[in-house]
Design goal:
This protein folds into 2 domains: 128 residues, Aspartate Aminotransferase, domain 1; 233 residues, Type I PLP-dependent aspartate aminotransferase-like (Major domain) (Aspartate Aminotransferase, domain 2). With 396 residues, the protein is of the alpha/beta class. The N and C termini lie far apart (51 Å). The longest helix has 19 residues. The strands form 4 sheets. The protein has a 7-stranded mixed sheet, with helices on both faces. 43% of the residues lie in helices and 17% in strands. Helix 8 runs parallel beside helix 9. It binds pyridoxal-5'-phosphate. Pyridoxal-5'-phosphate binds next to helix 5.
């Protein structure tokens, strides 16, 4: 049992270091307020439920209807007997939303990223990736046989350096998150489009935290930054703003998607999305496309919350996204603050090393269109009081 002893020793170590993750069971659906077993009702400030659609009646109804009309599951992968008319329809809807030619659905955005790089590149090619890209991109890139290069986070001079260094590669793929999930910052997409064009490289944006969130109509980081239609391809998720259930996709040129359908392993060897998720996601797109009120409400809520914290000396990373990191520094302190905030009725996660660099532990707040101004103000007050107590206010 040497293996189990090894694992157990490591778990003990994590326990002593205070870095074990804990899972708090919610007694009901995701929302602006949630009920946590043993804790009661708290303000949810740590979910990706950006538009508040995770328990929207129209989406729940669409999912229930899909189960009645199309059943519970397909018991198959897409190319065997796992494609229903609704899978194709959702792919078309996503293509229309992104202004792209074609879309391929995956079980998750993790799968979309995992199934991209290893499929479209060989030893002759290079993948050029931002150092702070999401774990699914890091793992996806690892699976590829191509040359792999990283550039410093959002540093365009460094990207140019890497592009010069990889000139000999046959094809180059530049990969970035649209929104960096621990920072709430945006990739400088206009400059990246220019650099990709200049070097004949293929630019892919994982817009998991931008889709449904940024831009006037929620079309994402590219819309926000004025380069909608100029990104070569996207990966993104159905598991955050667009209903918050499950599923992901890659969307871009038809030839790319045709190729992925033939060769991408997570697509070929893993089950199709269940009908309820397909139709729930379609209902989310319907809501978003009908009017963009939810997107503007999310922006208003975000601005209100950011201002409330900044005005009272809380050290937040500035920005426009609903991801609002509060820099604490010490991991144990961030985790203790998160636990105490929960006791005060506000659910915010603390993140330390290795999720973020050493010494940059933080509380990460995430705002939703579903929050009322009263909830946001109450949460901000609780955070300010706690920051005062822990001596982490800017003027403390
Ligand atoms: C940038 C980014 N990409 C991909 C994912 C994975 O998405 P999914 O839950 O659909 O696998 C996440 C989720 O945290 C993410 O933040």
């Amino acid at each position: 049992m040497s293996l189990l002893n090894t694992l157990s020793a490591e778990l003990d170590q994590m326990g002593k270091a205070g870095t074990l993750k804990r899972e708090l069971p919610l007694r009901g659906p995701q929302g602006a307020m949630v009920e946590i077993e043993g804790k009661g009702e708290v303000i949810m400030l740590t979910s990706n439920n950006y538009l508040g659609l995770a328990n929207h009646p129209a989406i729940v109804e669409a999912a229930e209807k899909a189960e009645r009309d199309f059943g519970y599951g397909l018991a198959s992968v897409r190319f065997i007997c796992g494609t229903q008319t609704i899978h194709r329809r959702l792919e078309e809807r996503i293509s229309e939303f992104f202004g792209t030619e074609e879309t391929i659905l995956y079980g998750s955005c993790w799968n979309a990223n995992e199934g991209l790089f290893q499929t479209i590149t060989t030893e002759d090619d290079a993948i050029v990736s931002d150092e702070l890209n999401h774990a699914s991109i890091i793992d996806g890139v690892r699976l590829a046989k191509s040359r792999k290069e990283r550039y410093k986070n959002r540093d365009m001079a460094d990207l140019r350096r890497v592009m010069e260094a990889t000139r000999d590669s046959r094809n180059r793929v530049i990969m970035t998150d649209g929104v960096f999930s621990m920072e709430g910052s945006l990739a400088p997409l206009p400059e990246m489009v220019a650099i990709a064009r200049e070097h004949g490289a293929f630019l892919v944006v994982d817009d998991s935290h931008g889709t449904g969130v940024l831009g006037k109509t929620g079309r994402g980081t590219a819309e926000e930054l004025g380069v909608f239609g100029k990104i070569d391809a996207y990966t993104s998720t159905l598991g955050k703003a667009l209903g918050g259930s499950h599923g992901g996709f890659t969307t871009g040129p038809r030839v790319l998607v045709d190729y992925l359908r033939q060769k991408s392993r997570p697509y070929l060897f893993s089950n199709t999305l269940p009908p309820a998720v397909v139709m729930g996601s379609m209902a989310a797109l319907d809501l978003l496309e009908k009017d963009s009120t939810l997107v503007s409400r999310l922006r208003e809520n975000t601005t209100r919350f950011r201002r409330a914290l900044a005005a009272r000396g809380v050290n937040i990373r500035e920005g426009i996204t609903p991801i609002v990191p509060i820099l604490i520094g010490d991991t144990a302190k961030a985790i203790a603050m998160s636990a105490e905030l929960l006791d005060r009725g506000v659910y915010v996660s603390g993140f330390g090393f290795p999720v973020v660099p050493q010494g940059q532990a933080r509380l990460r707040c995430q705002i939703s269109a579903a929050h009322t101004t009263e909830q946001l103000d109450r949460a901000a007050n609780a955070i300010v009081q706690l920051a005062e107590k822990y001596g982490v206010l800017a003027d403390a």
